[in-house]
Amino acid sequence: MFDGEDLSCFEFGKSVVISVYLYSCIAGPYATVESEKTEIKDYKFPLKLHCRKSISKYLELSKDEYFNCTKSGIDFYEKLFSTKYPFAKLDQVFIPDYNMGAMENVGCVIYRDEYIQRDELFS
């Protein structure tokens, strides 16, 4: 408890050494869409998409496209560089009012949430 409110505390495991500009910490009441355990070659790791709850229905409708593109991209770069994806997960977060188009971080890609398709196709 802090100031009368319940809080959660998380302890993260030790990570690989990375440049500080590739680190991200994202907090908020996001809605999450998770793929089934994803298999790319013989390595399995979860893929997750996160966005504001108010637009989560659109993300849910597009999730297969996002997951398929992500899987294809990882597979392509694993083959190109003969190197497996080195992290235990990959989150993609759609953030309102993000000042850049996207940013790739270790295990997390951040996008402007206006990139989530919201048009008559989903009406």
Structural overview:
- The chain is of the alpha/beta class and about 120 residues long.
- The chain has one domain (about 20-120): Neutral Protease Domain 2 (Neutral Protease, domain 2, Orthogonal Bundle), CATH 1.10.390.10.
- It is built from one helix and seven strands.
- It has one helix at about 55-80, and strands spanning about 30-35, 40, 45, 45-50, 90-95, 100-105, 110.
- A five-stranded mixed β-sheet has the order 1-4-5-7-6, covered by helices on one side. A two-stranded antiparallel sheet has the order 2-3.
Query: What's the count of strands?
Result: 7
Question: CATH H level: which superfamily?
Answer: Neutral Protease Domain 2
Mean pLDDT: 85
CATH class: Mainly Alpha
CATH architecture: Orthogonal Bundle
How far apart are the termini? 43 Å
Structural class by secondary-structure content? alpha/beta
H/E series: EEEEHEEE
Overall structural domain count: 1
Could you please say which CATH topology applies here? Neutral Protease, domain 2
Major sheet summary line: 5 strands, mixed
Share of residues in strands: 25-35%
Rg:
16 Å
Spatial shape: globular
